[in-house]
Amino acid sequence: MSAQPDQSMMIFRPMLEEDLPGIMRVENASYEFPWSETIFRDCLRVGYCSWILEIADEIVGHGVMSVLAGEAHILNLCVHPDSQNSGLGKEMLSHLLHLAGQHAAEIIFLEVRPSNAVAIQLYNRAGFDEVGLRSNYYPAVNGREDAVIMAKNIANGKMFSG
Q1: Is residue 128 part of a domain?
Q2: Considering the entire predicted model, what is its pTM?
């Protein structure tokens, strides 16, 4: 993968089961404690909004979101480390926000590790606010790490503040 992907070749499309090997390459390269293939299969099986981001026919990112009863919850947003810091995370987040709005969600939630300063900055720029904390939520090298709960009201139609 190149350090600066050609965004003119960027395609979002629904995740398919046959995409799982490529998704797992991105997931395993990105996280010390990645989701398992079984988790992704379960997300597909129950019908979560599961999308991939491709550039030049290569999966470089993915997002998984549940939407129910006016609420959306981003469960996973991931961009391959070789493609990070190029705006693709913002593009994936914008895509998920748009989908949440299409599904009549009025508010969208997510959890993020407090140690993931880059992601927190992305979410803050998108207009998310910290609304809570889940203690000992994530596995970590030395035990567990909390999760910062963030939320954004999308009922007003404004999806990204820049």
Answers
A1: yes
A2: 0.89
Residue 1 covered by a domain: no
Distance CA 80, CA 89 (A): 10
111 catalytic residue (yes or no): yes
Q: Flag whether 159 is in a domain.
A: no
- State the catalytic residue, choosing from 58, 91, 111, 130: 111
Q: Which position among 27, 48, 123, 145 bears the catalytic label? A: 123
Is 94 among the domain residues? yes
Mean pLDDT of the chain, nearest integer:
92
Q: Looking at the 3D structure of the chain, how many domains does it have?
A: 1
Q: What's 77's DSSP letter?
A: E
